[in-house]
TrEMBL record:
Protein name in the entry: Transcriptional regulator, TetR family
InterPro entries in alphabetical order: Homeodomain-like_sf, HTH-type_Tx_Regulator, HTH_TetR, Tet_transcr_reg_TetR-rel_C_sf, Tscrpt_reg_YsiA_C
Keyword DNA-binding: yes
Keywords: DNA-binding
Any Pfam family the entry gives: TetR_C_4
GO molecular function, one term: DNA binding
DNA-binding region: 28-47, 245-264
Length: 420
């Protein structure tokens, strides 16, 4: 048995090295067998085919990385520190790790570009690793470090997409020599999106009106009133108007039940305030779509149009995400230059926002671009490759993504990561 396990480990190691160097297509079973010092037929005793070996090779590395990250978490207190360490761990692997860490990065690109991977047992190891991020986010919400209105699946995908783009910029097209120098900028953007705080620029979140615009600020009578209204939307959607109680809404909003009646006459008044204020907000935003006069509006429109334009050709998008974007050869072609040129307008909007004072002065355009592109890639895979959401859910998720990205560029965050 020990000898058999030794052979299997030798095959896995050989597969990891060969696949990482040559990719799935250009690798052969014979080459892997030769490096593992076994016969070709022995490989098929443990693995069904070349793809099975590739996915299993990544699975083993992911399990090792999972245990290593848990070790790094020891001695750290609080979800913010854990989140920062997880980001730092990814960047460190880009810059200084060799061996297993570099092999895993290359195998991840190979596996995630293969649709069959998402149906293989190896994918579960990636889900397990991603589960650490979900656990951190949940703890952060529970301990009131992170906002409680987040869709954790979306936030997780945005963060991992962000880190993917950082890896690609360093390892694939060598835009930067290292990524750890981006750590503070990365964490600042992430915390601006998900951190608790009331210093966000008005009208970043859908459904919250701009108090400086006449005729649109009626809904925002106070922070408490807005919290009650948002809580009622959640409770009414979940239980229905008839079964919902004012006490449940008050508890969700974090206010006393009597506080609700300072702003709304009764449950019906609260119910009908929702479409009234929402439609006012929609009218306000629709007018601004055709004549965006400030950088936040322009960024919001750019994000929406970018997603819609790319999504208009599902076949091309699927090919781009699975066969092109995660292929290192792409980054040495004219097509990659053309792809980068599609982001020139984004830089123009970001620069305008910083010059006008609408966006944070410390905003790093390149790092935000990675956040944006990573979010786009991961969410598009979620939508069109894995096909896990309905068209209506896509619209809701796009709205949240847009709000989070806008929040990232407008909200200042103190540096709380110096000791990570």
């Amino acid at each position: 048995m020990a000898n058999n396990n030794g052979k299997k480990q030798a095959i896995l190691r050989a597969g990891q090295e060969v696949f990482a160097q040559k990719g799935l297509v250009n690798s052969t079973i014979s080459e892997i067998a030769k490096r593992a010092k076994v016969g070709d037929s022995i490989i098929y005793h443990y693995f069904e085919n070349k793809e099975d070996l590739l996915f299993s090779a990544l699975q083993e590395l992911m399990e090792k990385s999972y245990k290593e990250l848990l070790f790094h978490f020891k001695g750290l207190m609080g979800p913010v520190s854990h989140l920062g360490k997880m980001v730092w761990f990814h960047l460190y692997q880009n810059d200084f790790s060799s061996g297993d860490a570099r092999l895993m990065k290359n195998l991840l690109f190979e596996c995630r570009s293969n649709k069959e991977f998402y149906h293989h047992a190896g994918y579960k190891s990636l889900q397990k690793y991603a589960g650490l991020m979900l656990a951190i986010l949940k703890k952060g919400i529970k301990e009131k470090y992170f906002r409680d209105d987040l869709d954790l699946g979306i936030v997780r995908d945005m963060i991992f997409g962000f880190l993917d783009e950082e890896s690609l910029s360093c390892l694939a097209y060598r835009e930067v020599d290292e990524t750890l120098s981006d750590f503070e900028s990365i964490m600042s953007l992430i915390m601006a999106m998900i951190g608790v705080g009331s210093d966000a620029v008005a009208n970043v979140n859908p459904g919250i009106s701009n108090p400086g615009v006449t005729g649109v600020s009626d809904a925002v009578k106070s922070d408490k009133a807005e919290r009650v209204r948002e809580a009622s939307i959640s409770i009414f959607a979940q239980k229905g108007h008839r079964k919902a109680t004012m006490l449940e809404i008050a508890e969700k909003a974090g206010v006393a039940e009597g506080t609700i009646y300072e702003y709304f006459k009764n449950k019906n008044d609260l119910l009908y305030s929702i479409p009234r204020d929402q439609f006012k907000e929609y009218q306000y935003r629709l007018k601004r779509v055709f004549d965006p006069k400030n950088p936040v509006d322009k960024l919001r429109r750019f994000i929406g149009d970018y997603f819609r334009i790319f999504s208009s050709n599902k076949e091309f998008l699927t090919i781009f995400l699975c066969d092109i974007k995660l292929n290192k050869q792409f980054y040495n072609t004219e097509a990659f230059v053309a792809f980068l040129n599609t982001n020139e307008m984004l830089y123009e909007i970001l620069n305008e926002g910083k010059e006008s004072g609408a966006f944070r002065s410390d905003l790093n355009n390149r790092v935000f671009r990675n956040l944006f592109l990573g979010s786009f890639s991961h969410l598009s895979i979620r939508w069109y490759v894995l096909e896990r959401v309905t068209p209506l859910e896509m619209m809701g998720e796009l709205s949240m993504i847009t709000s989070l990205l806008c929040r990232a560029v407008t909200r200042e965050v103190e540096n709380v990561f110096e000791n990570i």
